[in-house]
Amino acid sequence: MFGGASSVSDKVDAVFLYISALTIAFLVFITFLMVYFVVRYRRSAGAKGVDIHGHTVLELLWTGIPLLLFLSMFYYGWTNYRYLREVPRDAMAIKVTARQWAWSFTYPNGRQTTELYAAIGRPIRLDLKSLDVLHGFYVPSFRIKSDVVPGRQNYTWFQATRLGDFDIECTVMCGVNHSAMLSKVHVIPEADFSAWYFGDSADPPLLAQAGSDGPPDPARGERAFKLKGCVSCHTTDGSKLVGPTWKGLWGSQVAVLTDGKEATVTADEDYIKRSISHPPKEVVKGFAPQMPKADLKERDVADLVAFIKSLQ
After folding, report:
1. Which of 72, 76, 190, 218 could anchor a disulfide with 306, C-beta 3.0 to 4.6 Å?
2. pLDDT for 244-299, tens place per residue?
3. Phi/psi of residue 294, each to 5°?
4. What is the distance between the alpha carbons of residues 183 and 104, in angstroms, rounded to a whole number?
């Protein structure tokens, strides 16, 4: 549980440990007194009970001591909560958009990703909004969790202290595919982040290292399917989400609506490319026109086509 990966982690852990230690101490103390009194004052033959009519000092002690301890817990928790809400002025502001059932991240320079990329040691402010229902943005390793409420802006922040990949989860039951609303925070060196952020490459740093030479590759297509957010709306097993399944799609006849008129098209390479570059133009009948325009390079599209071909 312990050993977090952000500047917030130690503060949250310290409050948790403090409250846990007090709770355990009181549990041991009260249990000891219960056992002691049961043994010490057990009923004896011929003994008569004596009424006790108050004890001012004792009453002050058992009221005052718990009150001071509870106030200490409140103060300790409040001061660390204030730290969680006071964002450093030099923090990079990234917009986080939640929808059923995916996360998307928009950086100050306009770039978008479906997984969050952050430079180690750099403060990051996350401005949270939801496009549909209530969601919960939670990064366990960073000890940050904030509700993402429709029609309302919320925020949180972190400063990563460890390199690596860390899970992002949704903590609110937001629909049938809630359990699949997962993403990652990739914490990378400052130099790598700056090279991607200020450079010409549209690919996130880790995806750019995955290898892109050679003919279209279904394995690369599957990786793009997950990293680019397609997995949040489409399936590969025949079941339906907010978008049609990709299983058996290749070569099939698809009923679409174009400018309100129904037509039937063949799911070939041209159709898939049109669906990616201009999603609202041909909407599959029975589905809402809510697919966002994907930021994909030609190589990614070719790999996705190869992946779809393999799902027969």
Report:
1. 218
2. 888 888 888 888 888 778 888 888 888 888 888 787 788 888 887 777 766 677 77
3. -85, 140
4. 9
